[in-house]
């Protein structure tokens, strides 16, 4: 397995993999639509390629690409960036935006290799704190990140509104 930077010609392959990631996150309560966001994520992927904010894991043997009969050597990816918000922060922060490994290659160390490579890239940018989001009921992902030294920092809470009007009145 090799970790490297993709080129723009691979943006469609990466968008397909992201769609698979988004679909999988729906099992954990994500409300992010998969297929309707393909164009936006492809554009984001292209921006990350230009800014060196995406890395891919390549297998020595091509594997089936998500939702098609085409094959690719990309078996995972990580997208990351420096976190620049509207407010000044006490330490430079980075963000792991997406980390995905094709299901048939999980538990092969690919996710760990991608995460470590992204962290190293962010450290080279003098990033001191790295954050990421995990769905609250995705315990496998939480354990993965905890094994890599991540701890809860902020809790996002959601309220799912149902019919708020009284049916009696």
Give your account of this protein's structure:
The protein has 4 helices and 5 strands. The chain has a single domain, classed as 3-Layer(aba) Sandwich (Aminopeptidase), CATH 3.40.630. Helix 1 crosses helix 2. Strand 4, helix 3 and strand 5 form a beta-alpha-beta unit. Helices cover 31% and strands 24% of the residues. The protein is α+β, with helices and mostly antiparallel strands.
Helical coverage, percent range:
25-40%
Query: DSSP strand (E) fraction?
Result: 15-25%
Largest pleated sheet: 5 strands, mixed
The separation of the N and C termini measures 63 Å
In the CATH classification, which architecture applies?
A: 3-Layer(aba) Sandwich
Q: Name the structural class.
A: alpha+beta
**With helices defined by DSSP (H or I, 4 residues minimum), what is the helix count?**
4
- Overall residue-averaged pLDDT value: 88
**CATH fold group:** Aminopeptidase
* Cα-based radius of gyration, to the nearest Å: 18 Å
Output the strand order for the largest sheet: 1-2-3-4-5
The CATH homologous superfamily name equals Gcn5-related N-acetyltransferase (GNAT)
Count of distinct structural domains: 1
> How many individual β-strands?
5
Low-confidence stretches: none
Gross morphology is globular
What's the CATH first level? Alpha Beta
Order of helices and strands: EHHEEEHEH
């Amino acid at each position: 397995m090799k970790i490297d930077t993709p080129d723009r010609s691979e943006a469609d392959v990466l968008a397909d993999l992201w769609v698979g990631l988004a679909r999988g996150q729906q099992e954990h309560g994500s409300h992010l639509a998969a297929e309707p966001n393909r164009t936006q994520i492809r554009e984001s992927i292209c921006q990350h390629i230009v800014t060196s904010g995406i890395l891919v894991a390549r297998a020595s043997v091509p594997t089936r690409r998500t939702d098609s009969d085409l094959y690719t050597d990309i078996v995972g990816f990580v997208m990351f960036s420096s976190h620049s918000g509207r407010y000044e922060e006490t330490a430079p922060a980075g963000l792991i935006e997406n980390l995905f490994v094709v299901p048939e290659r999980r538990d092969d160390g690919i996710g760990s290799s991608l995460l470590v490579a992204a962290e190293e890239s962010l450290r080279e940018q003098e990033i001191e704190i790295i954050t990421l989001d995990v769905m609250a009921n995705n315990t496998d992902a939480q354990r993965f990140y905890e094994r890599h030294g991540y701890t809860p920092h902020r809790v996002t809470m959601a309220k799912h509104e149902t019919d708020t009007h009284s049916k009696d009145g």
